[in-house]
Amino acid sequence: MDxxxxxxxxxxxxxxxxxxxxxLTSSEIRDLMSLATAPGIISFAGGMPxxxxxxxxxxxxxxxxLTEKEKQTALQYGPTNGLPSxxxxxxxxxxxxxxxxxxxxxxITSGSLQAIHILARAFIDPGDRVxxxxxxxxxxxxAFRACQAELQAVPLGGDGMDLSALEQELTGGxxxxxxxxxxxxxxxxxxxxxxxEVKRQMIALLQGRNIPVIEDxxxxxxxxxxxxxxxxxxxxxxxxxxxxxxFTGSFSKILGxxxxxxxxxxxxxxxxxxxxxxxxxxxxxxxxxxxxxxKFIRSGEMNSYTARIxxxxxxxxxxxxxxxxxxxxxxVTFERPRGGFxxxxxxxxxxxxxxxxxxxxxxxxxxxxxKTFDPAGERNDHMRVSFCNTxxxxxxxxxxLIAQAIREVIGK
Length: 412
Ligand SMILES: Cc1ncc(COP(=O)(O)O)c(C=O)c1O
Description:
The mean pLDDT is about 95. The longest helix has 27 residues, at about 300-325. This protein has 14 helices and 14 strands. It is of the alpha/beta class.
């Protein structure tokens, strides 16, 4: 404390923070990663699109063609649920994915992470059980932890969720879970796609139980093989009776995360609650981003842009698979990604991937350790290696270093 009674020591012990913020701690991994920002370091750690892939010319064109009235709209507050013109154009885009737009309500959010946060706030009371995949997207886990949920992990296999584990959680727990959170298409970090069969059985297990599903779908446009599309049909598009499916999506991977624009498509009663929560958080999402995203869809540029980036991510994904197959020791296994941003390496059981990360940093390369994505924050015998933010040549240079780090820790 200084003379005025202000806390200047940075000692969090004296500050009376809310209990709900206690679970939000800086991890050892984040501290390690801060060592990894030296120039020249190769990063397979991030989940961000490649900077060089952003549609800069299209953005210039869109902005320069805005009328005075549109520019004024772009700088003004807008409706909480989003600008009408964007809600309309986004509806066409979602309809093209067979999503039941008209039977549901669309809420524009500040990134899809905000959509997940809002849903978490709508449903979770402290101590509530929430079902999540293991592994799971860390941003969603943090949102649920911030609401003081008790996370119940359901393991993922190569074709989706372990259905007997899901059934056990649904029938065996002390209380009814508040919801199930899943990301069936190009999972972060597991890289997998749920099979239609797993989706059908999951629906059959969930029907009539009053457990909503949050379906997180931010990577489904980054597919590498067109023939996979029918099998990637969203749970929401399957439109099952007796389950409230809350579908969340984003412009982050198909335009740019800097816009901070996402959405949720949810049944009316959930929409009404979520709109009130959003109103209390930020009143509305950035109007400038919404004006740009709307024009991007309407001009047809979004379709040509996603076709272009798909090609590039496919090259990167395939280069990564080839490099991993060539250099990794046989005891490391992984599912070959058919889209999205990530590969998820399974190390021998019990391996501590933090030791491998330390070695890798010495060699000038980084990735994300497995426990980051474990709902319990413990299991560390996996590593996530992303191919989204490094070009093919860098992937070819970096993967041998990852393989060396693994061999030095585990053995030949
Ligand atoms: C699975 C998943 N869901 C949601 C998000 C959040 O994206 P945003 O808030 O940028 O829309 C991400 C970001 O990496 C993600 O990987």
